[in-house]
Amino acid sequence: YFPGISTADDTxxxxxxxxxxxxxxxxxxxxxxxxxxxxxxxxxxYSLDEEDRERYYRKAAEWEKRVEKFSxxxxxxxxxRITDPFSKEAEAFAEMYYEEIRSFSTDxxxxxxxxxxxEADIKKIKAYLFEEDxxxxxxxxGYRRFDPDCAIAQSWQRLxxxxxxxxxxxxxxxxxxxxxxxxxxxxEIEHWKAHELATKKFDYPSEAMEYYGNLEKHKKIRx
Length: 223
Hints:
By secondary structure, this protein is mainly alpha-helical. Helices cover 73% and strands 3% of the residues. It has ten helices and two strands. It has a two-stranded antiparallel ribbon with strand order 1-2. Strand 1 and strand 2 form a beta hairpin. It is globular and about 50 Å long.
């Protein structure tokens, strides 16, 4: 429903229509903030002057904060409360946050700084996990993006913010770097095998499940 454009269903209450209108305005603000973040991110990437580059990065970071501010608060809040990474709530959060990650322009730099890692490595991981068609799908015979994963989304969020970083968040970075290296050195290897080999050294799946298992235990104790 868009006021002045579409016709509201008569079964909707005034309160429901007000909520829809508010959500529509909120989404418009979020999209504007996202475009600004992307614009300043591009300026930062292609600026030849170091001072200008820093200034553009700061502006991009400011607009990215607004993107989160105008994001669906229900989903953002649910992300903070998730104890089951396979729940519908977790799936909704992951899908939403993967889209946000793709729009961010300063997350790579922040994560590199927070972990003391090479920015180029973090950039490769972002492209591999969120942006590129990195997974071969035997059903279609082509490549596609990875499905959104709540644990990975939340790890990326903590690594970017730089607060409450968990051990498995750091393991994610090492796991993906090794997985990409294995695939590069063995072009014919299937994804599941590369993932399995990387997991032997950097077991992100098990560490993440242990983390969520502890959250669920604490949740039950508080009931």
